[in-house]
Every structure is written in C-alpha cells, then in structure tokens.
Amino acid sequence: MRTARVFRLSMAHPGDLSELDELIVRGTIKASDVAAIIGKTEGNGGVNDFTRGYFTQTLMALLSKHLGKPAAQLIREIPCVLSGGTEGVMSPHYSVFCIPETDATPTGAARLAIGTAFSAPLAAENVGRRAHVESVAATVRQAIANAGIERLEDVHFVQVKCPCVTVARAAAAIAAGKTPLTNDPNKSMAFARAAGAFGVALGLGEIKAGDFTDASLLSDFAVQSPRASISSGVEVESNEVVVLGNSSHWAGDLRIAHRPMADALDIGAIVDVLADLGIAAAPQVSAADLTRISSILVKCEPDRRGNVRGHRHTMLDDTDINAQRHIRGAVAGLVAGVIGDGRIFVSGGAEHQGPDGGGLIAVIAAQSGGD
Amino acid sequence: MRTARVFRLSMAHPGDLSELDELIVRGTIKASDVAAIIGKTEGNGGVNDFTRGYFTQTLMALLSKHLGKPAAQLIREIPCVLSGGTEGVMSPHYSVFCIPETDATPTGAARLAIGTAFSAPLAAENVGRRAHVESVAATVRQAIANAGIERLEDVHFVQVKCPCVTVARAAAAIAAGKTPLTNDPNKSMAFARAAGAFGVALGLGEIKAGDFTDASLLSDFAVQSPRASISSGVEVESNEVVVLGNSSHWAGDLRIAHRPMADALDIGAIVDVLADLGIAAAPQVSAADLTRISSILVKCEPDRRGNVRGHRHTMLDDTDINAQRHIRGAVAGLVAGVIGDGRIFVSGGAEHQGPDGGGLIAVIAAQSGGD
Amino acid sequence: MRTARVFRLSMAHPGDLSELDELIVRGTIKASDVAAIIGKTEGNGGVNDFTRGYFTQTLMALLSKHLGKPAAQLIREIPCVLSGGTEGVMSPHYSVFCIPETDATPTGAARLAIGTAFSAPLAAENVGRRAHVESVAATVRQAIANAGIERLEDVHFVQVKCPCVTVARAAAAIAAGKTPLTNDPNKSMAFARAAGAFGVALGLGEIKAGDFTDASLLSDFAVQSPRASISSGVEVESNEVVVLGNSSHWAGDLRIAHRPMADALDIGAIVDVLADLGIAAAPQVSAADLTRISSILVKCEPDRRGNVRGHRHTMLDDTDINAQRHIRGAVAGLVAGVIGDGRIFVSGGAEHQGPDGGGLIAVIAAQSGGD
Amino acid sequence: MRTARVFRLSMAHPGDLSELDELIVRGTIKASDVAAIIGKTEGNGGVNDFTRGYFTQTLMALLSKHLGKPAAQLIREIPCVLSGGTEGVMSPHYSVFCIPETDATPTGAARLAIGTAFSAPLAAENVGRRAHVESVAATVRQAIANAGIERLEDVHFVQVKCPCVTVARAAAAIAAGKTPLTNDPNKSMAFARAAGAFGVALGLGEIKAGDFTDASLLSDFAVQSPRASISSGVEVESNEVVVLGNSSHWAGDLRIAHRPMADALDIGAIVDVLADLGIAAAPQVSAADLTRISSILVKCEPDRRGNVRGHRHTMLDDTDINAQRHIRGAVAGLVAGVIGDGRIFVSGGAEHQGPDGGGLIAVIAAQSGGD
C-alpha cells in the first residue's frame, strides 16, 4: 500500500541540497521514492531569477548520483516546481513528496494521495489556447488516476508547470506556417498560466468545455479554480502536473485541505483550512499542532483594480519593486503569522487561480502528532 | 474641556492633501485645532525618499493658507511625522490629530489625550549621546504635561522625530572644536533613533539615568521601550515629540492601547491590543468594529540575527530590496489581515523600540460606535 | 531684440530651487524672463516618481512669489519638463531657459532661439491617435513661429509634454459615447509619446500626413524624428511644446546642434554634435570648452530586440531594475565621459525619437567663451 | 613553449556553458589547457547573487566530465572569478584563459603570460590584517614565478579572490581563543578586498612592508595598486591568484596593457590603454581592430565623497539600486562606447584598486589580426 510522506527541508542557498542528501544517505528517504519537489528559492521570482535553475540542476545531479540515472532523464520524470522570492518572513525551503510502499493495511480513512503526470510536448502555436487547456485537463485526469483518487472533490491542490513560447519557438512555428498567440515570452507566460488554470478547472469538472472560448483567458476572471496553482517557464516543453488529494487507498496519517482566499486580507480562509484539518489558530497555531503541519501552499495576486477593500494600494505602479514581490511578502506575512512559521510556499501570478484579486491556500497536516 | 479627534484620510499621491482641505473648507476641521499629523507616504522609506518632504511642503502651505501664518513657522509648531514605504497591502494615508475645545463635562472615563513639545535645537556633537537622550526625555515629559496626562502608565505611544548629523553640521562642529559621534548621516540616523528610544524610556521612567552609558546605544538591546516610535531626519534641528495616552481630563470617546510585539509573527500582540479596547478579532475585526478604529501604529525591524523563530530569513542580505521594505511589507500584511484594512502605519527602524527583532503596536479606537 | 540665455543650476534635493531663487533675488535672472525649464530629478523615472511633482510645485510657488501671479496660472504658461532618474554619474540639475529683451543689434549670425506653445486640451478619445499627432504638429509650428525661426532645418530640438489617458478620463469618455484607445495609463503614455514624436516629425515636415495611419504608432519604427524628445504624464491636459533652434533674429552667443544616435554605443554622434558647435572631444572636451556648454539633451532606449551590436543585453528581463533606468545610466556614462561633466539630461522612453534602439543628442554651447 | 590563448564566450544564462563545451568537443580547446576563467554573470553582484555559484557549478561539472577529475578537486586548481551584474549595455560573457604547449620558437617579443597560484587556507582571525596582506603578496609572487614573468613592471593585472569571515568561521575562531576583525560578513568582505589590494601592491613592490599598518586598510586610500582587481567571497578558504603580464618566454600574439582610471569620467585612460596596444579609438575602435581585442577588464567605485568632478551624484544614497550597480552601469557605458562592444568585465568594489573614486582598466589584444 502506498504512503505519502512529505519532508520539509531548509536550504542555506539555492544550490544547497545537503539536507536531502543526508536523509538519503542515512536511509530515511529512498531516492527512488521521491515523486515531486515543491519549493521556494530566494531569487526575485521574475524572468531573470536563476535560483530555480540552480536548485533544479543541483537536485537532479544529486538524484542522478543516488539513482544511477542521467539527470536529463530524471528531469522528465520528477516534477520540480519552484517559486522564486522569499520576501519578508518567508524562509527558503523545499518539500520533498515521497511515496514509499509500506505494508500498512487500509483503515478506511482518506489520507494524502499524490499523483504526477507529464503531457506530450505542446506545440508553440497551441500555448495559451484551447488545445493547451485540453492538454492540461487530460494530464490532470491522468495524474488523478495515477494517484488513485476516485472522486474529483477529493482533489485539493493541482500544481501545473506549463511551457510558454520563446522567441525561438515562436519563430520556428511561424516558419512552419503556424500562428502563435504572441512571440513575447512574458505575455506568453501569463496566457500559459491562464490555460493551466482553465485546464485544471476543466479536468476537475469545475467548468465545462462550452463554458469558455480562447478569448476568456486573462479576460473572464469569473472562471477560476481554487485548487489550481500554475507556473510557467521556458525550460519545460510539456505540461507537468502534481495532484494532491485524499484517498482511502493510501496509508500514513497526512491529509490535505484547501480554501479559496477572497483577497489579500482573507485571514478567515487560513483559519478555516486549518480547522478543516482539526487545527486551531486562536490566533496562532500551537507549538504542538505546528509539528503536525507538513506544507503550506498559497497562491496570491496584487489586485489588478488597484485597491484592496476600497483602499488604494501601490503595488502595481511601483517601478522599484515588482508587484508580485509586494503581494508575496504581504500574504506571506499574514499566513506565517497565523501559522507561526516562515517555511511557507507563497507564489504569485494567480490569474484564474482562486477568486480575482485573491487566491487560495492548501495545507497538509498529520492527523495525529507530527511527521 | 479638550477633546481629541483623529481623522484618517487617504491621498491620491504624496502631494494630495485635498481631503484635509475639503474638511477644513466644510468646517469639519478647524485649521487651528490641528495638533499633529502622522502618515504613510508611498516612497521607498530611505534616505532618497522625497515623498515625505513633498507631503510636508504641501501640508504646511495648506495650513498656512487657512491660518494666515507662514509655513516656516508652522513647521516648528505642528509635528508632521511621515514614514515612507507602503509595501504590499498598505494604503497611503495620514492621521490628523485635532484638539477642539468642547463644552463636554468630565465623565471620569479616561479618553485619548494628545500632547506635543519641541526641544531646543540639539548641538551636532550631542547627537546619539547622553545629552541627546536627556533632551528627548525632558521633551517627552513636557509633552506629557502638555497633554495633561497624570500617570506615566497612561502614556501609550510616544512619537519622536530626532535630528541627526549631516556632513555640513559635523564639519561645523569639528571646526568649533567639538567631536561629533560620526559624520556619516546614515550611522548618525541610527544612533539618533537609539537616543530617541532611550530618551522615551527615561522620560517614562522605564529606565533610570544610571542604567546606561553612551556605549549602550545600538548595543544593549535589552534596553527598549514598547511605547517609543522614533524617526530621524536631516530636516529637523530639535526633537519633536507627540505623546498619546489616556486621561480623564479629556472628552470624546477615543482610547489608546499598546502592546510590545515579540517578533514579526506575533499575531497575539495584535489580538491583545484590540482586546484592550474591547474589540474582538476572531480571526478578523468585524465590519462594525472596524468603523471604531481611528489609527493603527506599528514599529518593526528585520531580525538582525538572520532568522525568525529558528528559520533563516533573507531580508538582510538582499541587494535588490532594502530590509526595511521587506519587514514593513510582511508585518503590514499580518496587521492588515487581522484588522481588515490597509490604512495602517507600519514603520521600520525599530532599534530599542519594543523587543529586539520585534517592535510594538498601538491602536486608537472609539469606545462606542465609529468616529 | 530677444536673447536666449540658459542657466544650468544644481539642486540638493528635488524641492531645492535655492540657486534659482538667489539668481532672481540678485537680479541676474528676471522672473518674467523665464520661458521654460528642463531638468533631471533624482527619482526612479517611473509612474511612482514624485520628484517631478515636488520640483514643479516648488518652482511654481517660487515664480508665483516673484511674479505675483497664481501658481495655477503659471503652470499653464511655462513648460516645466522633468525627467526622473539620475542613474550613475548623472547629477541632479535643471536648465532655466530665459528670454531677456536686450538692445543688441542683429549680426546676421544664427543664435539660439526659443519658442513655446500650448495646445487646447486634448480629448481622451484622441490620445495616441491621428488627432493627437495633428494637435502636436500644429502646436510645434506655433512654437516655431513664436521662436521666430524661419527655416524648419534650423529647428534642432523639440520637447513635447503630452497628456495621456487616466482611468477616470477614459471612464468619462466612454460615458460620453467615445472610445479611448486604451484605459491603461501605462499603455496610454507610450502611445502618447509615439503621437508626440509623429507630431514633431509632421510639424517639421519630416513626414507627410499620408505617410502613416493610427496603426503606425508603436509599430512602424522606421518613422522617427531625431529632433523629437517626448514625455507624457497624467498631470497635463494639453500638449506643451518647447522648440529650440537657431535664428539670426536672436542675439547672444549660444547655438544649438543635434545628431541622431544609432544605438547606445554611438560615441560618434556625441563627438560629431560637439564638432558641429566647434568643440573638440579628443577624447574629452577641454576644461576651457566645457565652460562654453550650456545644456546636453539626450534621449535613449533599451534595444527592444534584446541585443546591442549582436550581443545580448539583460535590460529588458531584469525584474529588479527597470530597463529605462539601465539604459539611462549606460548612455549617461558614455555622454558624461566624453563631455567631462555629469550635469546632462538623459531621458528614456525614446520610441520614434531617433533611430530604433538608439536616440538623439542635442547640445547648446556658446560660440565664444562660457555663458 | 607556452602560448596564452583567450576565448571570450557568450552565455544565454548563468548555467549555459554550451559554447565552451562545443569548443572542447570540437577540439579547439583542450580541457586540460584551461588555466583560469574570468566572467560577468547577470546577477545583482551582491551577497545574494547566486549566478556566480550556478556558473561555477556548471563549469566544474563540465570540466570534470571532460577531464575525469572530481569537480571538488578542480575548484581548488582552476581559478573561476566571476563578477555579478551586467547593468546597462554589458553582455554576459566569460573569458577562458588557456595555456596550450606549442612548438613556437622565441621571437624576443613579450607576449601575454598567465600564472596562477593558491595560498594555504587563511585563518579567520587573519582576514583583513597584515597576515592576510602577506599571504596575498606571497601568492602573487608565486603566480608571477608560475607565469615566468621576470620583471615586476611586466605584470599588468592581478586578479585575487580572497576568503572572508562568515558568522560560523568567526564563532569557531572565537571559541579557539582568537579575535577576528569582525564577524559581519559584509564588513569582512570589504576588509578582505583591501587586504588583497595591499597584498598585490606589496607583491609587486609598489609599497613596502613598513608603509602600512592594519589601520591603513579601508582608511588610507593613498595606498592603492592600479594593477589589483580583488573579489572576496564566503566560498573560498585560500587566496586564489591569476597574474596576467607580458613575457618573451611566451609565444602567441596577445599582449596586455593597463592604466589607472582617475574617476568615472576618465575616458583618457581607456584611449591610452588601447594606444599602448597600438589600437586607435577616434572616437571608437574600428571594426578591424575590434577583432583583435580579447578581453577588457575594469574596476570602478562610486566616489565615496558623493560627487564626481564637483557635481553631486546620487549613487550612495539610493535605497532602490545598489551603488555598485549604478557605477558598473555608468563606467561600462563609457568603456563599451569607446570599444564598440558590450562584452566587457566591469567590476565594482575597487577599494585601493586604482585611484580613490576611480579604478583601472586592462586590455588584452592581438598584435596582428584577431584571435
């Protein structure tokens, strides 16, 4: 029987995987059990944030050493999703999702289930369009099947890493007679994130195929999934998906829950998602309960209308600090204050991922004691 | 009988005082009743933040127009304390503290009392030394007397604006045979803030004259006052003090309370200071109670030891974003989330102002309905 | 007979106009002779750069004091064009363009001539469209007439400040049944700058009315004027124009010359424009010739294709430093090195102002001795 | 007979060593001939710039693959000196210094000679003190011997990478009864750079052992070497030295020259150093001569007195952009404009490296045709 285990590890810098190395060397983690990594590195989170590439290169070299497989192959098998930017009280860290086979017997309780899947490479002209949405949706369903989750409502968090168009890919597509949506990588990334969110919503049955057109992406913000967490980058060519949910086919004592966040001040969502897992925050999680928490996953967005609850914010017009850095720092300050810990994953770029101007929060916690 | 009133107003940009102008024109505020201004402007909060000067120039021109007094005189009579930096969810705003005479009769209840005082100009060679501490302490006591607050424990927040040494002032002092502590304005500002905090602690009787030496400043962080909020700038030559407390000699229905914050995650302090004023945050202040709140005043500091509750933060080593901008954004995210409003004053540079690595929070709220 | 005089003055901060005040008090400058100001302030040069507003407010209050006219009127009569951002070796300064009447007699030599003009307020729906281009062109011709410059080739520099659309103006236009080009102020600013550049080109006869359509703006970069320097801002409602050229109807000993800059490495253009004025730079302007120089005016732009002379630059993908700050610092380093002085006006946002990926340089210098 | 060859290669991102890999695979470069790398990566150049570590990890893995030696050994044999920050027109690139044995016969002409050396690990309590200076001086002399350069005046550029104190190293030293100069890594880095510059000056005989005390470091700026280029970092434990000079014992057609730069506007130094190599810049290097240039190496510093040639600069007081980023962008703009190429190494932190407020420039060029 499969058991999901999550190890939240700290790093001294983006190339520091020593804690994972030590756990593998000591035998606590079996390298072949590593299914996915989700982490925060201390870059700026923008196009020129190379801390993600540095971490990934180091990770794959480490796993390659332990598994005797080429890093170039591992990178296509193990999703490594990193968000740059540890503004304010956030602490650089990474969660290692492992799936050891254990001889536990089913208890009937629904426990954390993990599934991953990779789509076929996506053609440049499809990025940010319906074909992209459908590719993501199919890959999400495949990851759900891989996780053995039977009911869609038991899925609580879907992390997708989407390819986007580069200048070179766009040029090649045009030369082949195709018409990419845009040849601007930045615009392409935003459309790719939107396609990823629509794909999750479609894959989870939150919307239907007829509910949207290509023009809905980055335009109709009523379409959103509170379980979608999307990143996009030039370094991937297919959609990579990690599905997290609960299933009675899994052993262990971890469970996951999620809540949409209405806006950047929605402390209620944080308290509620903890309550879903039997953890009180009045006003802060107790030291004992804190040891039960394995991962905090948050998406957020600076309100594009320029105010929060009627009061003007200055994030969108700041030439000195990128708006995503502003919002990550603010929301992380709130979440870390309720949790009492800075090792939280707070990621920006939340278009169509939770309510417009808000986002979502998912928490993984042990149902008894700490992990 | 004096009544303290606080008007929290928004600005469209740092030169926008139109809301105050309108209230004066309409007669809601009498220009001669304006005793002090405390506000947040949308600059970077550093040496090259000119939004404070822009706001101050505009404010003094406005009051000059209404009062028929020269701006150059008003600037020496009305403390205008601005903190630059509205990171994250903070909304640019300013609180106008007014003291109208009313014909109310004493009720015995302690209500918000406001006192201001200006010291004599401080010699450059005294900045950041015992003479500076003593000058602040004396000015604080003068402001307390001005406020008519009888017991020191009824003082809850002391805002001080301290002069620092400029290259020119240091050179003049040296030419006169004096020895300034430093001729580096940035170092001087930090020592001036420390002297201000020690001065508040001394003025409030929290420490005694024998408890410290010049060497204690910026060194012995066990010395601190949870009621001191200090800023320092080249634009002032004397210590300017605003004391806020409660007194039964004042009418109105506002009260103030304060709490030290142990660290950047101390949500308990926020909930407690609200409870001191009879306001619940479970987890957030209700819409009805929100209308009772007049001002939120917070000081904070990136932990100089490089971690928060045992987990590494990256604020101090970030070459891209100043550490004070990081911590203001994080703490403001937490406070605004509990309050449900981004119009909060969160200021950095909190050396000796509350616990090391933490800071303090003060709240002014009406005891019945809104203001 | 009119004489053009240019005073290049330094400031200690964006609200420091003390050098101008002193010159007026001493009688060197007659306040009523001030025709225009062009300056560099030390903000970030972006949407949230308030150093421009702070300087303008201080300037207009100063002139109002000396002239006895309301500041609100002066701001509609005297163009004050500021560019934020003194990256690298640039020194904050402003050039005051004055037009005293003198009893000089014509010598036949062409000397610096200054003309200003203001258009009627521009309707929001016209911003960034042909009507905008035509309004600028007409205002440019009016300013040329005002300067008494007879031949279009004698115009060397046209500074235009264009209105753009704000969210509020766009909403009002839509409510009135009009269709603004965009309601995004940032996009509107870029289109307004493009319209300004097309307007200058049209006004100077560099292009004809049939040479372009609305779609050419920000798209056909072959259309450009090497004499156009455009800024755009929410604070103006009409197009403000300052024309600088040479005319035998003017006295004095100043002359102006200009050259297009092919790219950010075009040192040849700098040397050539100096040579046009009889000044050698081999490799640097001599101390004696340096005193002859009154103003250096430069526009530049980070190459939007991502490389300079075949080598990748990183300006456009930097999340930490705005691309315009990068290019201003680099080009200013080059120009200041050739001139030997950091008091140069280097402004970004040079769409259609000089060659694509480059820009332009104009220099004003005395033809004998210094000014 | 040894021949020095220099390959200047571009990178698409800090982990991109594909151009070097291709040259090795094609046989143009023999991996065992690689003696040192000096490069510019596109980080922020500060403490949290991880592009240097990313590049180094990738480089060492690449050489390890080709040489069959562990990367951990190579990192102690091949100096890899990186400067973060490609502000403005700088293009990310790296120069690979190779020393193939060739069967050339001596011509008597002095040609580029390369020498490297590593000191023993430096004790933490010695960092930034005389023992550090002497260790660097000895290592410099060792590298000169390694290069076979006979006369000290034939040395033109000495690159040193110095260890600094980390919090951990300082703590260990204190526990062992030693007294480190400081336990602040940032201060330690500056003192380490100063010790490196003094060490180069001592090793080159520019100063004598009696000319300075510990107190001279970061204080007596009259002590400086126009041939010293120092970096400091937590990642090294010994002093790493690369000496570049000219020697008749070397074949090839490369030569190196250097000049001090008096300040950030010293275009004369750039023109002069090119002239030393027979290259004219009037005002720019010709396309033909440009192909002869192999490397441009520059050190610079924002003038700590706050002005350049009497005019105030704003680099030191900018809370948004680090002063080193400002000065690198400005000086690179000037150097690249004279050269006509953005692939130049411009590094900040030039304390005691060239004149105070200035720096130095070294150029390597072929004496006939291109390389």
Strands of chain A, count = 14
Number of domains of chain A: 3
Uncertain stretches of chain A = none
Give the integer mean of the pLDDT values of chain A. Answer: 95
CATH superfamily of the largest domain in chain A, please? Cyanuric acid hydrolase/Barbiturase, RU B
Q: What top-tier CATH class of the largest domain in chain A fits best?
A: Alpha Beta
**Could you state the oligomeric state of the chains shown?**
homotetramer
| CATH architecture term of the largest domain in chain A | 2-Layer Sandwich
Query: Into which percent range does the helicity of residues of chain A fall?
Result: 25-40%
Strand order across the largest sheet of chain A? 1-4-2-3
Count the DSSP helices of chain A. 9
- The SSE string of chain A, one letter per element, is EHEHHEEEHEHHEEEHHEEEHEE
> Main β-sheet of chain A: number of strands, strand sense, barrel status?
4 strands, mixed
Distance between the termini of chain A: 18 Å
Region (RU C) (chains A, B, C, D): 254-371
Binding site for Mg(2+) (chains A, B, C, D): 301, 350, 353-355, 358
Keywords (chains A, B, C, D): Hydrolase, Magnesium, Metal-binding
GO molecular function, one term (chains A, B, C, D): hydrolase activity, acting on carbon-nitrogen (but not peptide) bonds, in cyclic amides
